[in-house]
Amino acid sequence: MEMLLASLLMVWGNLSAASSDVTFEQLVQASLDSKNAIVEVQPGSATNGTKDPDKPAGPLDYLLPASKKDPEPNSPKVKGIYVTSHVAGGKKFDSLVNLLDKTELNAMVIDVKDDYGYITFDTGNPELTNLGTTKKNIADIHKLTATLQEHDIYPIGRIVVFKDSIYANMKPEQSYVSSNGTVWQNGRKESFVNPYLKEIWDYNINVAKEAAKVGFKEIQFDYVRFPEGFEKKADSLKYTKDDRSRIQVISEFVKYAKEQLEPLGVRVSVDIFGYAASVPAAEGIGQDFETISANVDVISPMIYPSHYSEGWFGAKVPDAAPYQTINGASIDTEKKLTRLKEMNIKPIIRPWIQDFTATWVKGHITYGKHELEEQIRALKDNGVEEYLLWNAGNNYTEGVKF
User: Fold this and answer.
1) In principle, which of 109, 322, 325, 344 could form an S-S bond with 318, CB 3.0–4.6 Å?
2) How far apart are CA 215 and CA 144, in angstroms?
3) Residue 32, φ and ψ in degrees, nearest 5
4) What phi and psi values does residue 300 have, to the nearest 5 degrees?
5) The whole model's pTM is what?
6) CATH of 40-47+77-390, one of 3.20.20.80, 3.40.50.10140, 3.40.50.300, 3.40.30.10
7) What whole-number distance in Å separates Cα of residue 200 and Cα of residue 194?
8) pLDDT tens digits for 291-333?
9) Burial level of 236, CB count in 10 A (0-12/13-18/19+)?
10) The DUF4015 domain covers which part of the protein (predicted)?
């Protein structure tokens, strides 16, 4: 590990080799941010949670459940697509239903709280309605869920949790405030709400409960994290916090959400950065892969080849090596979950894979039928039977053998 860190430090010159507090996660993030680094990082290079009876309990072990039961044990092996609320409530929806009717795809991940923070249908819940955060992109949610049921499409409700520009600007005291008194924004003009606050937890869980009531069989939480690079800006922002670490806060939210939704009989899943499976813990954004996975029914690492910078898994351009990249990410994911498998609390692994062309990546390739099938082949070679396709515009490749 020391030799690997030294090598990475030399290549990613934006981190000082003299700094004693540089973490592996910071190095990985530097890799993700770098456009020129060419480093061979082999699959399985990171540590994992292998069970050791002589090893003292870790700081997050208090969050590991003693047992876990799938609330939807008769669900199909999910092969799904992402659907925005605008598409779900519009004319294009019928064409996506037709796509699923004629292929082995059988599930839709539909926005019920979107990337801006809008609740996308009328929940009928006065507490939520009175907040003014509802935007009825899906005019008739009951018609939508009836259509999904009629076509035997497994319904997953996506909730974007801590990235929430609408709520943050409405209630700055529950967000992060910059030194000039304005709500902090990232480089994409997006704002986040504060994961330390239980009010934020309950708000999102209330949305999840309403989604479950109208027929969604699974709630998928996305952006379950602090903003990227938060550790670099945390001290300059004003926000409420306590003595808990960021990874404690995020893991505790996931455990709480699972407990709150369990009586409704719905699955809980979480989207997580793919690289979180390849590092000890993504402490800056608060994502501990093992502990989050322990408290969900399904874990969905976002292992898009375009998200890995040059050198990952031995590929000079991971985006141009879909099989090699997905294979490496799958190996790391399985290793990261070794201890949970031994404890019989391992979740279903259902990764997000790439059905888009990443034109912004140097050396990228055009993604189509072959590239999708290469990703799927890599998953199957690693025993992964479920997956989700991401395309932000909901334009999915035809003719793929799923």
Assistant:
1) 325
2) 10
3) -65, -35
4) -120, 85
5) 0.87
6) 3.20.20.80
7) 7
8) 999 999 999 999 999 999 999 999 999 999 999 999 999 999 9
9) exposed
10) 80-396
